[in-house]
Amino acid sequence: MTTPQEPDRDDIETLESGELVRPYVIINGRGFSDGNRFDLVTLVTASADSEQRWGQLDPEMRGVVDLCDGGYLSVAEIAGHLGLPIGIVKVLLVDLAEQGYILTRAPIPPAQLADIKVLQEVLDGLQARFG
Amino acid sequence: MDSRLGSADGVHLADKVQIAAKILVVGHFAVGKTTFIGTLSEIPPLRTEETMTQAGAEIDDLKGVRGKTTTTVAMDFGRLTLSDRLVLYLFGTPGQQRFVQVWEDMTRGALGALILVDPERLKDSFAVMDLVEKYGISYAIAVNYFDGSPSRSEAELREALDLLPETPVVTCDARDEKSSAQALVALVRYLQSRTRQE
């Protein structure tokens, strides 16, 4: 689904971020490519001591840590729940990981994902669930 | 919806989940991707939007960023916890060639793709099929039957879509849990057969 935008508007990103701050400002002007180590389905949770240091964070980062506090969520789910674009969330996660606020499950290499065992587990799971 | 394997709070994943797998549910505009994902997902489907600067906007560089055209591409996705350690995410997005970043993100590590097609609008599926093939993603075709859709023979569909003989073609009703799950099962069985061959 695409929404054609007026070409001469400079504030469109503001509307899309769901906040009255441009995403570029939220991530302190950093490049989007910084977030490439996070995949859409990288699983993220808040670290054990994140709550004690929570107050030092920007509101958007606090939102991420707060959401991740109850268990693991994928990067895509964090973006969906917070109403932020994926690219922004990835950059926030890089900062939060560097500062020790969040932990990730080790990513599964693509080769292993195509593993016959994973496919069998998906198949078994679907059949157990939907008959 | 079934929460036996899900987390206690219905939002987060169960504690033991280690592996996140990804299957794409793609197709042209309004083919039923979001309905399909919503039918199978254990959580209310979520949507994320990515802001894209359109290719070709460089011509306005002299005027600076104000001249660039931005647009959003929406991605709908759902989640299925399939075992103690495995969660499957279903990602749906339309097939527009220009959203390269979104397609790179979506296809990285994906097990495969289910391409939903509307038998009345087969031509509209060509663009998305091209993209899935370009990114080297194995796929199955799921013909989403809407009310009143005339049935078309599988042979006609295969010819119209120029499918390889081994590409699975299944029919489904995206509103129906069982038939949607069967379409996914057909895709996964096909992926298994391909993995064995390699």
Automatic annotation (TrEMBL), chain A:
Family annotation (Pfam families): DUF742
Name this protein carries in UniProt: DUF742 domain-containing protein
Annotated source species: Streptomyces hainanensis
TrEMBL record, chain B:
Domain of life: Bacteria
Tagged with keyword Hydrolase: yes
One GO MF term: GTP binding
Pfam families in UniProt: ATP_bind_1
InterPro entries assigned: Gliding_Motility_GTPase (IPR052705), Gpn (IPR004130), P-loop_NTPase (IPR027417)
Record keywords, A-Z: GTP-binding, Hydrolase, Nucleotide-binding
UniProt-listed CDD domains: Ras_like_GTPase
Family: Belongs to the GPN-loop GTPase family.
PANTHER family: ATP/GTP-BINDING PROTEIN-RELATED (PTHR42708), GLIDING MOTILITY PROTEIN MGLA (PTHR42708:SF1)
Protein name: ATP/GTP-binding protein
